[in-house]
Amino acid sequence: MTIRKISVGLLVGFVTLVACTKQLEQVKDVFPGFGVPSNFGTPVYPVNGPNKVTEAGFILGRTLFYEGKLSRDNTISCGSCHIQSAAFTHHGHDLSHGIDDLLGRRNAPSIANAAWYQHFFWDGGVFNLDLLSLAPIQNPVEMDETMPNIVRKLRTTPKYPSMFSSAFGDTSITGTRVLQALSQFMLMCISSNSKYDSVMRKEPGVQFTPQEQAGYQIYKNKCSTCHTEPLLTNNQFANNGLPLGINPDEGRYEVTLNAADKYKFKVPTLRNLQYTAPYMHDGRLLTLHAVLNHYQTGMVNTGTVHPQFFSNGQLVGIPLTPTEREQLLAFLNTLNDKVLVTNKLLAEQ
After folding, report:
1. Alpha-carbon distance 192 to 335, whole Å?
2. Tens digits of per-residue pLDDT, 197-229?
3. How would residue 29 be classed by pLDDT, with cut points 50, 70 and 90?
4. Where are the beta strands (DSSP E) in the chain?
5. Is 314 helix (H, G, I), strand (E, B) or coil?
6. Are 277 and 343 in contact (CB under 8 A)?
7. Whether pLDDT at 6 is above 90
8. How far apart are CA 93 and CA 103, in angstroms?
9. Are 223 and 332 a contacting pair, CB within 8 Å?
10. Which of 133, 129, 102 is nearest to 113 (CA)?
11. In Å, how far are 7, 11, 12, 13, 39 from 2, measured between CA atoms?
12. Distance from the first to the final alpha carbon of the chain
């Protein structure tokens, strides 16, 4: 009897432990919904509008983000060029590779913090997040597909009618809903958990080191005009004096046809530079030291270079002493967000 009672007791204890563990896992996996970090401003995207993020919509969007059927030959997904471990950029590639291993013209920018952006792509050719995905889908060197074909493929894939029903209330699969679901996933790709963010939020026990603090001051004095806090971009377009390369890319001018916009590109965020090499719109610079070298000695006046880089009519770039370089690099390192690149919620399931 004693042994039996002990066995029953152990069994009850084990079942209780399993139940508690499952409850903890359920609590841990609760969908957080879209939230605005306390050190961020109001999103540009209407997050409380018709396409408000829901758990079902996000899950559908995540599934579609990693779905090869969005490309002509079913091999290229959004996640092929926007890789989570690279802060949703195409790590290691100067120019992004698409369908049939074709090369694009530009380096894939990150989709992180898209809720706060007014313009998308290096030239700002899209100004609505719900239309963003359509451009790479239709681009002949990226995914080379049409939305009608995608809709047909998704309608004949067993899992999707029920997923669309959960997300939108009925089983209808449309191009608009595909784009909205993808938006819901991208809206949740928020980068706000770097050391910099913790310092800005005055979280207990988190402070810049003296070197990082000195670098922060250098950043504010010499970089913040274009790389504005807290997104570390001003969402505008600038010519940063890159020499003209073999790729005849005139940037924003190709959208506006305004000569004043020649060779201007969207100012990228300084967040997550540890994960997002190579740098610049065409990925020509492989390291941050190369980037700083460009601003110190490599800039060329192509006619529309930002006034920030001039002094008394002379193109001077960003002068830095060796000590200042190291201090600035120390600060830039505080902008890396490990949570973003390891968050299982954003990973392919």
Report:
1. 9
2. 999 999 999 999 999 999 999 999 999 999 999
3. low
4. 237-238, 265-266, 310-311, 314-315
5. strand
6. no
7. no
8. 10
9. no
10. 129
11. 9, 14, 15, 16, 61
12. 48
For residues 187-202, average pLDDT? 98
Q: Where exactly does CATH 1.10.760.10 map onto the chain?
A: 55-190, 195-339
Grouping H, G, I as helix, E, B as strand and the rest as coil, residue 318 is: coil
Please state, in angstroms and rounded to a whole number, the distance separating the CA atoms of residues 286 and 271.
16
pLDDT for position 349: 94
Span of 5-19, 169-183, 297-311 with lowest mean pLDDT: 5-19
Length of the chain: 349
240-242-244-249 Cα dihedral, nearest 10 degrees: -50
Place of tokens 């399931």: 349
Contacts of 169 (CB under 8 A, 6+ apart): none
Among 239, 283, 227, which Cα is nearest to 264's?
Answer: 239
3-state secondary structure of 4: helix
CA distance 80 to 67: 10
Whether the CA torsion 182, 184, 189, 190 is positive or negative: it is: positive
b/e code 267-294 from CB counts within 10 Å (16+ = b): bbbbbbbbbbbbbbbbbbbeebeebbeb
The continuous run of DSSP H or E covering 136 comes out as helix 134-138
Q: Render pLDDT for 60-119 as a digit per residue (tens, 0 to 9).
A: 999 999 999 999 999 999 999 999 999 999 987 788 889 998 888 899 999 999 999 999
Q: What is the CATH number of domain 55-190?
A: 1.10.760.10
Domain 195-339 has CATH 1.10.760.10: yes
One-letter amino acid at 191 equals S
Contacts of 338 (CB under 8 A, 6+ apart): 193
Does residue 348 contact residue 79 with C-beta atoms inside 8 Å? yes
How many degrees, rounded to 5, is the angle at CA 227 between CA 333 and CA 52?
95
Mean pLDDT, the chain, as a whole number?
92
User: What type of residue sits at position 208?
Assistant: F
Closest by CA position to 37, among listed 187, 201, 277, 259: 201
